[in-house]
């Protein structure tokens, strides 16, 4: 036995100070708890054994393998803790303030463990928090562990801890070997307690978003999800970042393996669910100087989609004011409030821009083109002046760019590598098959990579909150930021009015009650709407990577607020209504 | 290798659930309906992004292959391999075959690919699952054959032949037979090379004896390999041909005839004109009686009435004593000329001209009318238009004369083709035209001779 052979070596490990040694194949000592290999090696006393050394080595090798298979004892929530830790690190490297990781996310996670009765409470369902801290003595890099160590032991009743520890050690030996690598994988997937929100991989993102929101960081939900898809934030195969000794298989696969990208609405709903579960207080106010305030986000998206930003921005701000969506109470997330909801900040800002576009250009496949004719004529005549915004030209530029980007995204998605280097399997019967497949895939890929040009085609994109770039001026990609909206305005007395005096509503009816979010009346049937409206919805939903119908709903909601009186009056009327300003 | 492109069309349908494929009664396919039904079946649940992107990847590969962008296809293929790791049981079955088909297609055309790359790929793919081993081995061998590597192909087939996998191998019996047959075909190839050498040698030569001995040995093995396959219903032309050639060479005429008869007449076999052609040629070589030859050709006439052997059939019929054969002879000629590919066949026209005259002289006007009735609507513009008259005359005067005669007989001397040709004044055929005019006057079926 390895361990017995190594018993005579009694020094403390330099890394983790434990005294638990094993022998490597080369006869060197290694620490069984942190796998630190020493320089010292066991002296070979018996020279007789040399001819048989090969047999011995094989023997030992087999045993060691079996022993390693078990790996550390670990709990499912530890796995999530690792994922959260790495996600927080990734956010930090994306430029988010360090407080997010050390204070906010950490606190949320602790609160989660407490609320879900996994740690930091009088009667934890199991002693996860404390146990795991005992088992990670050397992991100095993860400060959260240390914290857990201190607080977990301090807050837990010491006696119960000891008894639980024992019982777990016994239980774990059979449990780990049967259905999951983690100790409580099976138990975890069977738990169905009412009122407890079970952690899942998508919910780690919801937690991240909650902390971003708390910190009022300059990152929207759509940005976060895009970074996930672009692999700047660990999510798919996040378990790859677990230490080598944390073995995953069986039920763990169902808990940690993800085969889909996060969905905007889904994560949004989960965020609210978790915030409620954690019983969080009202979040810091979102005021006009916050990034998430519609005034600022509108500016960002106006720049992004290459519209005359300055002039349209003032109009957007006006809409924000009229609809009241810029007010602090409306914007600030308050989980304790009766109807807890977070505003979909990015979506709302984009919807406001759509409404502004509708106000200016009507988007009925007719008016916007006639305005374009005017602008084109003017621009031809006055080449030196500030050019008038030409909707047609803008459409042509944007359409081309959008199509290119869409195709590139499609290509990138088709080439996305889903499978991790260490494959997950359900059982030991599965294992050789799964590993063989993995090896096969790697070999085939190696072979085909020689047929592809050596230059890596999918270079990792530099993370940016902008997807379109309009700074460089070239012929096909005109920048419209500085163009004038003169074409849509006319003077009347001293004030400027828009030439367009009509408006059509995206939805006629809503359900009764003010805050009804049922969707059956706002269903987006593409063919019912004008082509330019469709294009604009497509453009923005591509930008946020959401469904077009979602944006259409949001537009309807903004319109509802903007034309509230009109809605009240037309309740009984039907047919396409036109509102005059 | 040639049928790779045909096979490529199949993966598209195989991609989705084959069993659930929506086919309407008319055989029309609605791909959009398919995906719609699928979402309904799984309760409107969204497909995992993993399977969505891999199937998108698949269509990118197919698009690249269609456009012959091999490098791009290889690029996507690189990503598509991960589909092998799918957890979906059905996909697990279909993906290896798909990858083999697409991958081998790419490697066949990719400029950076070579025999070694292809072989490594094939060897890897053979061992993913068990169901594809034989198929891939066979196609691999065909690839090697295509590159002239006969020995390697032979070794490959030999390996495949001995492959066994419990019950799985018995269900793939036909594939094993095919593997053996291809091996036989390779042996035939060497045999036939030897035969050629032998024909150059002197019979008294010492070498002659040893060579024949080794040939006999080889052909015996080959016949074992080939005979198993050709008993199974199917189209096995090259195998049958080489097998018969060897049997004939060693004087086993009866066995050869039996094989060919079986191949042509067994009802379980799909209808195959070549089978009848082989049998006819064999019988002709063996100087079989006319009735036997006629019966073979009669079947061929029903399958391919435009075959060039039909003219031979006509001659045989003409020589026969039976009157019904004479009638059929006329029918066969008309039948040949119904096809666009035969319109300039001068022999056919010559035969028709001659035979029309003969038939009418024999007072069988009814026969001619019977044939003509169904054709009088379209033959004039198909064969006897003014345009054809001009171009035929320019290209081939002899042909034009024959056609003009037939036109005159069938349509009367007023017909444009006949008029155009008969007006031509040319020294060489002046006499012929004169004669033609005379005959037409006498025999034309439109002549009011009441």
Relative strand content of chain B: under 5%
Portion in strands of chain A: under 5%
Which runs of chain B of at least 5 residues are low in confidence (pLDDT < 50)? 1-27, 39-44
Largest sheet of chain A: 3 strands, antiparallel
Strand order of the largest sheet of chain A: 1-2-3
Quantity of strands of chain A, as a count: 5
Rg on CA atoms of chain A, Å? 30 Å
Oligomeric assembly: heterodimer
Biggest protein-protein interface?
A: A-B, 29 and 35 residues
First and last CA, distance of chain B: 66 Å
Query: What best-fitting shape of chain A do the alpha-carbon axes yield?
Result: elongated
Secondary structure category of chain A: mainly alpha
**Percentage of residues assigned to helices of chain A:** 40-55%
Could you walk me through the main structural features you see in this protein, from its secondary elements to its overall organization?
The complex is a heterodimer of chains A (581) and B (450). Chain A is mainly alpha-helical and 581 residues long. Chain A is built from 22 helices and 5 strands. Among the domains of chain A are: 1-42, no CATH class; 76-122 and 179-278. In chain A, the strands form 2 sheets. In chain A, strands 1-2-3 form a 3-stranded antiparallel sheet. In chain A, helix 9 (201-215) crosses helix 12 (264-278) and helix 20 crosses helix 21. Chain A is elongated, with a radius of gyration of 30 Å. With 450 residues, chain B is mostly helical. Chain B has a domain at 1-128. Chain B has 24 helices and no strands. Chain B starts with a helix and ends in a 7-residue tail after the last helix. At the A-B interface, helix 18 and helix 19 of A face helix 3, helix 4, helix 5 and helix 6 of B. Chain B: One of its GO terms (biological process) is transcription by RNA polymerase I. Chain B: This is TATA-box binding protein associated factor, RNA polymerase I subunit A. Chain B: It comes from Otolemur garnettii. Chain B: One of its GO terms (cellular component) is nucleoplasm.
